[in-house]
Amino acid sequence: MANFNRRSFIATAGAAAAALPLVGGKAFAQEKVKVGFAFLGPIGDYGWTWAHNKGREAVNAAFGDKVETVYVENVAEDASAIPVLRDLAQQGCKIIFGTTYGYMDQMVQVAAEFPDVKFEHCTGFKRSDNLATYNSRFHEGRAVLGTIAGKMSKSGVMGYLGSYKVPEVVLGVNSFLLAAQKQNPAATLKLVFIDSWFDPPKEAAATETLLNLGCDLVTTHTDSPAALQILEQKGLFGFGQGADMSSFAPNAHLTAIEDIWGPYYIERVQAILDGTWASADTWDGMKEGTVVISPYNKAIPADVVALADGVQAGYKDGTYDIFTGPIYDQDGNLKVEEGKVMTLGELAVIDWFVKGVESAA
Amino acid sequence: MRIKLEKRPEPSRLMLVITPIASVLLTMLVGVVVFDALGIDGQRAVVDIFLTPLLASYKWQDVAVKAAPLIIIGLGLSIGNRANVWNIGAEGQYIIGALCAAGIGIAAGTSGGPFIMVLMVLAGIAGGSAWASVPAVLKTRLGVNEILSSLMFTYVALQVLSYLVGGPWKDPNGRNFPATAPLTADQALPLLPFTSVHLGVGVALVLPFLFWLLMSKSVFGYQIRVVGSAPNAARHGGFDSNQTVWLAMLIGGGMAGLAGALEFAGALKTINLGFPSGYGFTAIIVSFLGRLHPIGVLIAGIVLAVTYVGGQVAQTTVHIPNATAGIFQAMMLFFILASDIFVRYRVRFIPAAKSAPAAGE
Amino acid sequence: MDSAFIISAIITIVGISTPILLAGLGELVAEKAGVLNLGVEGMMLIGAIAGFAVTVYTGNPWLGVVGAGVAGALSALLFGFFVLTLNSNQVATGLALTIFGTGLSSLIGLSFVGRIVPQFGSVFPRELATDPIGRLFFGYSPIVYFALIMVVLVAWFLKSTRSGLILRAVGENDLSAHSIGYSVIAVRYAAVAFGGAMAGIGGVYFSLVITPMWAERMTAGRGWIALALVVFASWRAPRLLVGAYFFGVLMWLELNAKAGGLSFLPGAALIPSQFWAAMPYLMTVVVLALISMRDRIGSNAPACLGKPFLPAT
């Protein structure tokens, strides 16, 4: 800067100050923007909520003093979420993230009560002017896991620990098994729904049940490392979800799907600061970096690692999609024709399982 | 110097009123100490839990909505408790009442209006009473302890809930998430005029006065009180203890069912697995803290609702878990139970005897 | 349905049944002395977090079990103070203990979420537990064997020792026991403390063995099943053992129904999993009814159960 003097400084500062009101919304430079998070479980669950919390920490790191984040843990998927969401709005949050499906109707209600506050619902499908939805293509990660499972399962019978028969879980199951069947056409899958996202004793008992029924490998779609602990005790393999769970099961944990929410949260908070926030439905995946595979266990042979890496690369450059036909459902009907790829719209409402899935429901 | 307990000829009325107040205050004091010891800002925590919900007007609606079921169930339970009938299954009756109301809603399809609403409420009362009638029949016909039988039926009710919302009554548009379809706008209870709380809150505020009239003016009220405090005298007076058990259980169950129906039709408009909030158990605390008196129950219900709402506030401000509200509720109950001794006994301080001990001491 | 399936099913069932067996055994002793302690769930959770915390700090799960027992006993003594010394209502006090224990354990557990603990070594030499049959007998956690030993000890204590007789007398007719000269209150305190210790160890089985971690409310209502179990077993220790494993089978059936694994039972697919989950409670009610029908002749429920001790001094 050649001629920095007081005058040019004041001029620049004046210009900046004059421009402030043009930075839309209600965000003033000196007032911290409050960002609220409603978490389903504890931030120490080393799974789903832990990952969302990491995203929150990323927001803190990216924006420093401009932003203040607040969070509430263990907000149940019932009416008690309403006062919590209201409280966050009343405390002055400008944007509130609700991190589980079961907050849907509550967020719709509270969003209507606070039209100036922006709400974002994770894995939901109801939107309004100030309620957006966001999701992650976890099933892309399941395809990687399924590839490894197909190769590493000796019995060819895999276990899947699920919560509810919601599309997210159905997609995970289908993607996992389809990928496994590419490596082992005879692979089948036993599925159990425990009617909860987080219930360690039930997850453990359900895992044991799956093992009793002949599975030699289990992947978890619930939020705690309980399943992996059982697998570790029995000397078997499995996969984690939400975060790298290897510290709980160093031998059993082959790899996990890690949810990386930071970039999305930062983007949306920036939109609040810029005044450009608009309701949308965002469904990012491996390409955008929201789905990451954690480091492979040393026990996975090199050729299997190569296959898994291949799937990842395929998703990142768009050349691979597990939901490419022909795909048959449990009863043998052809649901997706050869060569056709299922659209995101179809994936969002899916309620049928692929051939080879054995479940009670 | 020793402490001598002299039984009072009659329970002290002054103590009856002071002890609940003292219990609450003592709980707050102990809370500050305990939290400080755990490294949490004790004063802030206790203020947030006990005072903020009362002082911040935007929290009043949350307190009111939370207090409604507690008060209604508490009223029913206090009738039973006075008659020495111990209905521990209020939680189950609450759930069944709500399910019956939900069933009406589902059967009604899209039609709504006052007729449907009244039907839902009546179904709730009927369902709750019916659920309570099983322990009643077991007690009157077979002498089965109603504490254990009503408790067991609570857990059966949970399974009935799980079956219905996960199966036949699942919302077909809910992407397989186990929950009933939300009530339409003309099926849900209207709001009280000039407020944002539902009609059920109004019911909860009026019922205590009706119960007070009933208990103090009617023969039935007299019957309940006599049977409870002097069963032999009651029999001589011609009051059939079996009939008392029936009435106590049916009223307790009916009130719990009513609370469930109102909570469903007014506050939640849908039922999912998270519906059981433990109100049936907390209402036992409410009835004790309220000294089994209808107006006491009204006040105690509000106090406990404050701790629930305050607990949520404290979650965001001092980061204590939701379950901490339970610690305070339990402490209040402990103190009120302990303070019973002041109601029944007069505490005398006797100076140490220097002469030979009196005979019989 | 081959032998491998049966063996692995039995191993799972033993694991599921152990916590309710322990808590049930403790509650049985308390109830035999005449005290109804509904706070089992709270005591189990207190034991679970206390044992977990001790294990985290000492690195020794055995000390954790001891810590769990002590914590459970202390919480039971708190309950005992209210109902035995202050004569407060047992039902309400027990409920307060449950709510208190749930909240306290969650609060203390805050700093323990995500922590990992060392596991128990095996009790028997490893070579014994390599094949399925070996695992069936020798592959369990030490707490499982402890529970079985305690069943024998408690049964023997209640039936064949003088102290056991006194305890039962206190539960059947406290006024008579008092007039003979036994301290009803002291006996009940001891019984309640034992109940708390056992509940605490039952709880720590969750946080140290089943899923070695801490999560809020991780006992998931098993304390209430333990209460049902005591009634189901007609307050007799050997029946408690059978009942615990029977309830374990029902819980196992529930999970298998959810997993679609009941194909070996014809028609089982039509029975919803919730039916099996409700069975322990329904069966307990049936047993309650049967006992009460026989009540004309005489039942096993301690006559003073739940009633305060009111000597006419």
Mean pLDDT of chain C: 88
- Average residue pLDDT of chain B: 87
Q: If classified by CATH, what would the architecture of chain B be? A: Orthogonal Bundle
Write down the secondary-structure element order of chain B.
EHHHHHHHHHHHHHE
Strand content of chain C: under 5%
Give a written overview of the molecule:
The complex is a heterotrimer of chains A (361), B (361) and C (313). Chain A has 361 residues and is α/β, with parallel strands linked by helices. Chain A has 11 helices and 15 strands. In chain A, the strands form 3 sheets. In chain A, strands 12-10-9-8-6-7-15 form a 7-stranded mixed β-sheet, sandwiched between helices. The longest helix of chain A has 17 residues, at 167-183. Chain A is globular and about 60 Å long. Chain B is mainly alpha-helical and 361 residues long. Chain B has a single domain, classed as ABC transporter involved in vitamin B12 uptake, BtuC, CATH 1.10.3470. Chain B has a two-stranded antiparallel ribbon. In chain B, helix 5 (114-142) runs antiparallel to helix 6 and helix 11 runs parallel beside helix 13. The longest helix of chain B is centred in the middle third of the chain and has 29 residues, at 114-142. Chain B is globular, with a radius of gyration of 22 Å. Chain C is mainly α and 313 residues long. Chain C has one domain (3-295): ABC transporter involved in vitamin B12 uptake, BtuC (Orthogonal Bundle). Chain C has helices at residues 3-32, 40-58, 61-85, 90-109, 132-138, 142-160, 162-172, 174-180, 184-210, 222-232, 237-259, 273-294. Chain C starts with a helix and ends in a 19-residue tail after the last helix. The relative contact order of chain C is 0.19. The mean pLDDT of chain C is 88. At the B-C interface, helix 6, helix 11 and helix 13 of B face helix 4, helix 10 and helix 12 of C.
